[in-house]
Amino acid sequence: MKQNEGLAATERVVAQVRALIDRGELRSGDRLPAERQLAEMVGVSRPSLRAGLKTLAAMGVVRIRHGAGTFIAAGPPVLTSEPLSFLAALHGFTRAQMFEARLVLEVTVAGLAAERTRTAPEKLIAISDETTGMFASMDDRDMFLDHDIRFHRAVAAASGNPILSSLVEMVSVLFKEVRRQTIHRATDLKEAADEHRVIYQAIRAHDAEGARRAMSDHLQRAERAQALEEAAPSAPGAAKDATESDAPDRARASET
Predict the structure, then answer these.
(1) d(C-alpha 113, C-alpha 73), whole Å
(2) Rounded-to-integer distance, Cα 125 and Cα 123, Å
(3) Distance in angstroms between the alpha carbons of the first and the last residue of the chain
(4) Helix 189-204 and helix 124-136: axis angle, to 10°?
(5) What is the reported pLDDT for 79?
(6) What is the structure's pLDDT at 82?
(7) pLDDT score at 1
(8) What is 2-72's CATH number?
C-alpha cells in the first residue's frame, strides 16, 4: 500500500511540473521553486518530491544541480536510451535492424544538415573537429569510436531538427554499446575516416543529395565491415579491455 502511495505521489510531482510547463509558468532553463515550496504546492512529502524530480531528471525534463537547485532542461530535447536498451536486451536487435534504423534516420539528417548549414555555418565546426579527430586517433580504436559517434551526432544536430537529433542520439548510444565489442578487430579505420570526410565535404558544400548518398554508402559499407568484425576471432584480452573501457561511458550515461 505504501509503495502504491509513493508511486502516486511521484506521478503527482510529474503531473504538476508538466502543468506548469503547459501553462507557460516554467520554460527552458527556469529554476523550479524551492523544495519546500514545491512540495507544498503538489501536496506531497519532500522525499516523494525528490523521487518525482529524479523521475523527471531521468526523462531529461529537469537538471538537478546540487547546491543550486533544479532547473528545466535547456537546449534540445534528449531522449534516454534506456527503454531502447531494455528492448534490445529482451528481443535482441539484429545488426540489420540497427543499420536499417540508422539509414532511415541518418541519411535524412545528412541532407538536412547540408541544406541548413547555409544559415548556420557554425554547426560545421563540430563535424569538422570530429572528422579531424578520427584521422588523429586511428591508433586508438576506442578514441576513434568516440569521434565516430560524435561525428554522427554533430551531423544530426546540424539538421536543425531537435527531434531527429534526439533520435539519432538515442540510437547512437545503443550502437556504441554494440560496436565497442568488435572495434578492436576493425581493419577499416582509414576507409571509415575517409568516408566521414566525404560526408563532411558534401555538407560543407551544401550538397544535400551528395551528403545523403555519402551517408548511405558509408552506413551500408559499415554494416558489412561490422559483420566481418563479428565473425573474426577475438584477440586475447580484447573483451576484457573493451569491458573496462566501457565503464566510464556507462558512468557518464547514468549522469546524463
Answers:
(1) 24
(2) 5
(3) 32
(4) 160
(5) 57
(6) 61
(7) 40
(8) 1.10.10.10
Concatenated DSSP letters for the chain?
-HHHHHHHHHHHHHHHHHHHHHTTSS-TTPBPPPHHHHHHHHT--HHHHHHHHHHHHHTTSEEEETTTEEEEPPSS----SHHHHHHHHHH---HHHHHHHHHHHHHHHHHHHHHHTTT-GGGHHHHHHHHHHHHHTTT-HHHHHHHHHHHHHHHHHHTT-HHHHHHHHHHHHHHHHHHTTTGGG---HHHHHHHHHHHHHHHHTT-HHHHHHHHHHHHHHHHHHHHHHHHSPPPTTHHHHHHHHHHHHHHHHHH-
Mean per-residue pLDDT, 193-215: 98
Name the more confident of 49 and 79: 49
Q: Name the pLDDT band for 9 (thresholds 50, 70, 90).
A: confident
Q: Architecture of domain 82-255 in CATH?
A: Up-down Bundle (1.20)
pLDDT of 235 higher than 90: no
pLDDT at 243: 43
Q: Where do the domains of the chain lie?
A: 2-72, 82-255
Average pLDDT, the chain: 86
